[in-house]
Amino acid sequence: MRGLLLLLALAIQPGFAGEPPQAAHVALYVQFDQTPPAAVMDSLRSELDSIMDPIGLRFEWRPLADSSPEATAELAVVTFKGRCDATSLPPHRTNPGALGWTHISDGIILPFTDLDCGGLRAFLGEQLLALPRGDRDGALGRALGRVLAHELYHIFANTTRHASDGVGKPTYSVEELLSAGFRFAKREALALRLR
């Protein structure tokens, strides 16, 4: 009888190991200085989904300019600055500084973030040029997805803190932005699940 009670108690515990998190649907309102190619957008969305789906965040992309107000529990507004394509890339890498930033007012994290496509192009330019022409937009979109996931971490975990590893780190190398896989460390993934 005691064993049966223990099994029943374990069965009703929320967040039991191995249990997928309950999905939260997030309205992601986006605007671009210049509309990116479809290959960039497809890769950006796919990368963001691959990072955030296991944590329990699913995104519905909506253009900011065409949106009518709609009640939603979770949302973020993302502005992509500059050109978000892999044409006319700079031949040498430069370090442009911050590639993304989330807005804060009076110590409160706001659901507004900006991504610097031009800065990312400058940072990755030399390595993107080394890729076959048909792979460049996809690689740029993947890198954008990782920078966006980092900024959304600040918004949905409600923190200005950074991690020492993974997507939550304060800075990335070119290799991390272009590698096959790059995810949140366990601590940051847990913070997003418990938001």
Short note summarizing the structure:
The chain has a single domain, classed as 3-Layer(aba) Sandwich (Collagenase (Catalytic Domain)). It has 195 residues and is an alpha/beta fold.
Uncertain ranges: 1-17
- The CATH C-level class name: Alpha Beta
* Average pLDDT: 86
For the secondary structure, the number of strands is: 5
Order of helices and strands: HEHEEEEHHHH
Tell me the distance between the termini: 37 Å
User: How many discrete domains?
Assistant: 1
Major sheet strand order:
2-1-3-5-4
Question: Looking at the structure, what is the overall shape?
Answer: globular
CATH homologous superfamily assignment: Collagenase (Catalytic Domain)
CATH T-level topology: Collagenase (Catalytic Domain)
Q: Which structural class fits the helix and strand makeup?
A: alpha/beta
Helix content: 25-40%
